[in-house]
């Protein structure tokens, strides 16, 4: 019986806690991982450096950073001159869609991942979205991921020719931040390499008060694990 090479997977990697955990999980499950990050005009570009550190630490076949200009459209506190909300309560974070939502971001990111997956002849895409502690983004819900997967299998040559069926893996979908932290610890994820803050200081330090910082802190506290 001949040696079977590992299946290739495109893994969306922002450099944050969730996407890094998702990448580590795909790697543990035996996939040959191709990490895809984006310089999309975000104010927290330091996350791209974090993505590079995480990719190197976990061990990927290739780490690609695609440059796309979502800041040309604006409409988000992450891509235009809109203040990032600070010190919001869990109740406030759980209500409505925040101004840190970037219009169509995951749809665009998944489209790039889909294109690369076709080139790589890969039928697997990993994305670290979750529907619990997620700040209300509409493109992090399970129904969105399911709908995108259906569309992807209609829109690609591989899908039409039935050569392969694309699967979008969202293994963190039904986990809260504490559960994600615990999973990351089990996988040996070096948390100190990741970056979550939406509004870092000039030296890249976390603000500690934006939604992403607060959700991260809550996750580590509830998990009983120190955030390094």
Search tags:
alpha/beta; Rossmann fold; globular; 228 residues
Strand content: 5-15%
Which architecture per CATH?
3-Layer(aba) Sandwich
Q: What count of helical segments does DSSP give?
A: 8
Strand order of the largest sheet: 3-2-1-4-5
Poorly predicted ranges (pLDDT <50, ≥5 residues)?
A: none
CATH class: Alpha Beta
Oligomer: single chain
CATH level-3 fold name: Rossmann fold
Radius of gyration: 17 Å
Q: Please, what is the average pLDDT?
A: 93
Count of the separate structural domains: 1
The sequence of SSEs as H and E is EHEHEHHEHHEHH
Head-to-tail CA distance between termini: 45 Å
Helix content: 25-40%
From the spread of the alpha carbons, the general shape counts as globular
| Largest sheet descriptor | 5 strands, parallel
Instruction: Please identify the structural class as seen in this structure.
Output: alpha/beta
Number of extended strands: 5
CATH superfamily: HUPs
Question: Which helices and strands appear, and what pairs or packs with what?
Answer:
Elements: E1 8-12, H1 17-28, E2 32-39, H2 46-58, E3 62-67, H3 90-93, H4 105-120, E4 124-126, H5 142-155, H6 157-160, E5 167-169, H7 177-186, H8 211-223
Parallel strand pairs: 1-2, 1-4, 2-3, 4-5
Helix pairs in contact: 1-2, 1-7, 7-8
């Amino acid at each position: 019986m001949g040696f079977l090479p590992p299946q290739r997977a495109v893994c969306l990697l922002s450099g944050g806690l969730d996407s890094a955990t998702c990448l580590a999980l795909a790697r543990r499950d035996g996939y040959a991982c191709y990490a895809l990050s984006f310089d999309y005009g975000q104010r927290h570009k330091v996350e791209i450096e974090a993505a590079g550190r995480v990719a190197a630490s976990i061990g990927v076949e290739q780490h690609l950073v695609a440059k796309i200009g979502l800041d040309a459209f604006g409409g988000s506190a992450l891509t235009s001159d809109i203040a990032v909300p600070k010190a919001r309560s869990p109740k406030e974070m759980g209500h409505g869609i925040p101004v840190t939502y970037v219009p169509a971001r995951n749809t665009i990111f998944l489209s790039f991942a889909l294109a690369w997956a076709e080139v790589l002849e890969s039928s697997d895409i990993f994305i670290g979205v979750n529907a619990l502690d997620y700040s209300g983004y509409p493109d992090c819900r399970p129904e969105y991921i399911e709908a995108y997967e259906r569309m992807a299998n209609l829109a690609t040559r591989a899908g039409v020719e039935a050569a392969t069926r694309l699967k979008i893996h969202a293994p963190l979908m039904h986990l809260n931040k504490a559960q994600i932290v615990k999973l990351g610890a089990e996988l040996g994820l070096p948390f100190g390499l990741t970056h979550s803050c939406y509004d870092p200081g000039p030296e890249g330090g976390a603000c500690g008060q934006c939604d992403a910082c607060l959700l991260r802190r809550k996750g580590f506290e509830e998990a009983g694990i120190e955030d390094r």
